[in-house]
Amino acid sequence: MPLGFTVVLGLASLGLAATWNSISDVPKSKWDFIIVGGGTAGSVLAGRLTENPKFNVLVIEAGPNNEGVMESIIPGLQARLPHSRYDWNYTTVPIKGLNNRPVDYPRGHLLGGSSAINGMVYTRGAASDYDRWAKVTGDPGWSWHKLQPYLDKQEKFELPADNHSIAGMINPAVHSATGAVPVSIPGFPHPNVDVVTMGVTEELGGEFRYNLDWNSGHPLGVGWLQATIGHDGTRSTAATSYLTPHVRARKNLHIVTDTRVTRVLPTKGTRGLEIRTVEIGSPDSADRVLLTASKEVILAAGAIGSPQILLNSGIGDQEDLKALDIPVVLHNPSVGRNLTDHTIFGVSFGLKPDAIDGGPWANLFFDPALQAQALELWQKNRTGPYVALVPVDHIGWVRVPDNSPVFNQYEDTSSGPNAAHIEMVLGVSASILSSFASRKLTLEKAIGSSYSTGLSMISPASRGSLTLQSNNPFDDPLIDPNFFDSEFDVLVVREGIKAAMRFAEAPIMKNITTGILGPLANITSDDEMDAVIRNGAGSAWHPVGTTSMSPKHANWGVVDPDLLVKKVSGLRIVDASIMPYIPCAHTQTPVYLIAERAADLVKAAWR
């Protein structure tokens, strides 16, 4: 849908009478649908399904309400969310490919889920990412072309918070201004950095050519950052976008927070194995509450939570379940397998003195007085650095060169020739990047002390797993992304580092940089570079694939293309876990599309 901009005055706040923080407070009712998880997908489903007043919907969210959580509302406070009460605070097992290092694994633990704590980067990926889903599932409805109406329903592109012109920064023809989730170019530009990045696109072109809009389905090149931040300078989440005051006031929607679903249970019926009952529990009590949906239970607990619930319910590999004394309800060895994630690795280049003026906010992330000023500006009139996340305005998407020796040994794992292998987050100082990756990067003292690239390996070959450590549903699962299990992934990150070095060879970069920083400065061979990669890489926190889609009647996978669990009636999964392949994109936008389509699939099934 072509894009047009309008300014709409906010409506007065409505009472949110349908939200509770204890299941005992929820009025007794008959539920058509019980949605487990009020995160990115669950919020979409709740908003869309209750458009039909005949559907009575209960959403059960393990975390707290999102309202009033300033760290989630203000983009510039994002770094305070990991390791807080709004994070599940997972840690992976020691990862063999990272020299047996565990890594932190934040996931959203509040209404809105990870859309309420993530980095707000709005990327769709390549058209071929979705076409591959359609091909592998046998369902053309998952293709890029067929998903376009859901992009329109999902996106509401707005002007930046500072109202600067975005002419030449996006292609309005590939965006919608009428959808649910406010999106914009961040409203606090960094012109001293931007002129360098754009200068490289002009001087080098080629793999670093300017791409007017990498959300067109053809992402290759360098373009302006798009983020889930509205014109009002606040973060857009699934909860703020789909569970608006108007939606929460619907009589057919009930939301309960701070409530944990531990298992889904068989329900007496006439359609074989029916699972339409959820068990609610607390680690502080042996008491359990059972609730049954008349139509469906929909798991939307994410790529970690959904397979964990299935396994605790006896749905998974029978040998693994028996080893933990969990009664087997359905043998499906695909549950918890195929865990796929992006790795991230930082490459920083030192800057000559005063090469890039960091401006008055250069020490923002180290100076409490500056932080107080930034907060005051945001609260007063939605201006200043806190209307954006970090000093980065561009992202590049590059492929490993076709003539790389990598492809003499390995098949290409990307979805097609227009899909990227590497994402380059450009211009961000290492001090900020360290909060997203391994936390092992060199800590710079100020914005402007380095020009950095955050390299994310976004077409991985490695696959990991999620398993249980016990039959206690309150124990964290064992999360193993299995990074760099395939040597291909290491070689691609190596190629990404070399791409960053080529980027730094542009004349405009050579004029201001002093050379590469950190352990990469001392390497003399590819083997040494690979060792640095394994010691320094972390997770981009984009887990998918643990309850993967597959063709109907396939003997692998967990859900059919309509997202119903195989060999089960009444149970559907809608979240990142159903992706058979990870897109070359940050995963929140693909999850929005999955949930939008899933809502229509559910509506069609229960007309």
Note down, in words, how this protein is organized.
The protein is an alpha/beta fold and 607 residues long. It is 24% helix and 18% strand. It is built from 16 helices and 24 strands. It has helices at residues 40-49, 70-73, 127-137, 144-154, 191-204, 238-242, 245-248, 302-312, 318-323, 368-381, 406-409, 430-433, 487-503, 507-510, 526-536, 588-605, and strands at residues 19-20, 31-36, 57-60, 90-91, 104-105, 155-157, 181-183, 221-224, 253-256, 260-266, 275-282, 285-299, 315-316, 330-331, 337-339, 343-351, 394-398, 422-426, 450-457, 464-467, 478-480, 513-516, 538-539, 571-573. Strands 1, 2, 3, 9, 10, 11, 12 and 24 form an eight-stranded mixed β-sheet that branches. Strands 8, 16, 17, 18, 19, 22 and 23 form a seven-stranded antiparallel β-sheet that branches. Helix 1 links the parallel strand 2 (31-36) and strand 3 (57-60). Helix 1 (40-49) packs parallel to helix 16, helix 4 crosses helix 16 (588-605) and helix 13 crosses helix 15. The protein is globular. The protein starts with 18 loop residues before the first strand and ends with a helix. Residues 1-17 and 430-447 have low confidence and may be disordered.
For the structure shown, list the relevant keywords.
607 residues; alpha/beta; 8-stranded mixed sheet; 7-stranded antiparallel sheet; globular; disordered N terminus
